[in-house]
Amino acid sequence: MSLDHPAHARLTADRHTVDQLNDEADALLMVSMQRAQELAGEALELAERCGYEAGVARARMLMGYGHFYLANYAQARAAFEESAAVAVSLGLKALEARNLNGLGITFVTTGQPGLGLEYHLRCLQLVQSMQDVLGQAKTLNNLGNLYLDINDFETALTYHLEALELAHQLQHSVLISSASINTALSYHKLGQYDKALSLNLATLERARDANFKQHEGLILANMARDLLVLGQLDDALNVSQQAVQFSDELGDRENMCDALLTLSQVLMSQNQPDAALVPLRQAVTLADALDFSVRQAEGHRDLAALLEQQGAYQEALSEARLAAAAQQAVMADMLQHRTQVMAAQFKIERLEHRAAEERLRYLELSEANAALQTAQERLAYQAQHDSLTGLLNRAAFEELLQASLQSHPHTEMGVLFIDLDHFKQVNDTLGHDIGDLMLKQVAERLRHSVREGDLVARQGGDEFMVLLRSMRLHTGAEIAAARILEALSAPMELAGREWRMTASIGVAVFPDDGSDITTLQKNADLAMYLAKRERHAVRRFQADLGQAAMEQLELGQALRRALENGELRLHYQPIVDAQTLEPVALEALVRWQHPQLGLLPPGRFIPVAETSGLMSPLSHWVLREACAQLSHLRARWPALRVTVNVAPQQFVEADFADQVSAALHDFGLDPKAVIIEVTEGAVVGDAGFLQAEELDSAGLDLALDDFGTGYSSISRLHQLPARWLKIDRSLIQDLRPVPERRSSRPIVRALITFAHEAGLQVVAEGVEDPQQLQELQDWGCDLLQGYLIARPQSPELLKL
């Protein structure tokens, strides 16, 4: 049956309109996603009405990309699959390739990178067969994004640079912009922030000229992160605000989440916590809604730190737990995604061989599958075992403990928390290689000290866990712990010397001391902390521990781990010349970057360190870290000095002067670079006085801290081998008389006079208002320190 002329003309016109609508939608994808969706929808409706299958397929493909950019991933996948099926039936290879690419990026974004890799490589094979250079460039760009998602940044950069080179050859403006954005992101992930920022700036100009709104929003968000890392906070604030506005206009929720999170981080870096709270809560809400686990971990972590800073400790703790859960999900997803990609890489190897090599290809694939199985078995073993000792790791132990509690709810079981005593001394004196040998021997002794069926795990560092699956006696766990303690204390041969290792063991019994794994492990940990105070002891958890005592025990144990895990930070407060206000030195002040509670001031943990035997190792860490950072700071300020507070117990150690000299030598510093701060009480007595004289003989300067409190005695000033005297801030705060107490002016003036007579320079601490400054200058005070001059800052923010 023939088609009459008017009907044929109308059909031709309709198809032409469909093509025009699709062309316009295609051009607008990077400019206005909502408008592109509307046009593709109109094209789809008209194409279906007039039976134009090719138009239907293309419209569905364009709607798929629109859904993808708007984070509607289920709709995007359905649209791409329907379009691809029609494209294959019609032999439209270019359209099929675009749908394969769309499916690839959708699977990658939704956490299935193995499938994503398969679709991208199928697309690459198709466009290569068509000699479609544009298609190759797009696919290489997307492959780079896939490797970005599994944190293989070097591979990602290789693909992105190759895609960018092809895009420039084609002079394809959209692809040049896209590949440039992704290349800059790869640079950022590799820590090459200057390169990333430079490329983003050039790309932003091109995107604005071409009116690529979608790209402009992405670039602004990425630039804001570059500027934040580089410390250009004012620019970062401006750019992140623009990124938020663009993302809102475009409806790009994922980019909006990134931009809001960066904006809040910039505001926090500018010490504007109240302003940061609003965008941070918006970012967290959006990350949770999108199930965007990487940003969930980052957002909840930042929110916990900010709430803790504002005193909302309960809410901060809740946010910290959410951050920890999200981070755990990120790590689990990363391992799973890498395994998927590895499996996909082996699976698709056969596509790279020619048909004539089928037999050889089959052999190689068999070998690859065997290697994959071996790799998966090795990964499974590594995921559950400690690499050094071969014992179960913490995660596997907790999983098996949970299974034991669920399958035997009425059976008594014991959980032991074991910590080696003085293990740090082994590493410090014999080196980490010998320390590792000791840990292996300890692990072997633990294996032989438990029954078949019991579990032994390495918790981390020098800490171990044991699960006693069933006990005949109520005291069975303590008896087993005593047996382990005896086995560990037997002498062992290391580096030609005989060593005796002692341990402290905490015991918790199921169900008396806890009915879930979290409570059991926490209570065994607390009991170990009690045993640690006595050394070489076994202690059962005591349910009558007060809440405050338990919090102190937990904080003390966390502080010990903080020293090992690098959670401590140094901030610096300038000490300036009283007359010129020019910086003379910095005082190193320790802070604790707690993983849940955020940045803690020393008042929160120094008392715990003092009662936990941690002041000496804490002071030692501060000394070496201050020397390390000073060696870098002197590149900008060659004459800069640092004052380091030293605990009395460390100051009187026999080798303290050697510790200081070693730190100076290791970091290439002269003796005058560091000033040792101690309280007068540390110098009182023969040991302290002799130590002070030894430091003086070595050319090291000593500062008497907090003078005016405690043991302070003006009569002894001329006897002490010190160079500085630091007047305690309490005396400086009392310069102005108030009805309740007398002014401290006479005391401060006398201290300055007597200190000068004794040949000491005077530092006034706690200077907070101009009147105090003026009076101290009038009285001839040498040096000043306090909030009026500068607050303590991280080394990155120092401006001297």
Automatic annotation (TrEMBL):
CDD domains xref list: EAL (cd01948), GGDEF (cd01949)
Keywords: TPR repeat
Coiled-coil residues: none
Annotated GGDEF domain residues: 411-543
Ranges: TPR repeats: 137-170
Pfam assignment, any one: EAL
Entry-linked InterPro entries: Biofilm_reg_signaling, EAL_dom, EAL_sf, GGDEF_dom, Nucleotide_cyclase, Rev_trsase/Diguanyl_cyclase, TPR-like_helical_dom_sf, TPR_rpt
EAL domain residues: 552-800
NCBIfam families: GGDEF
Protein's UniProt name: EAL domain-containing protein
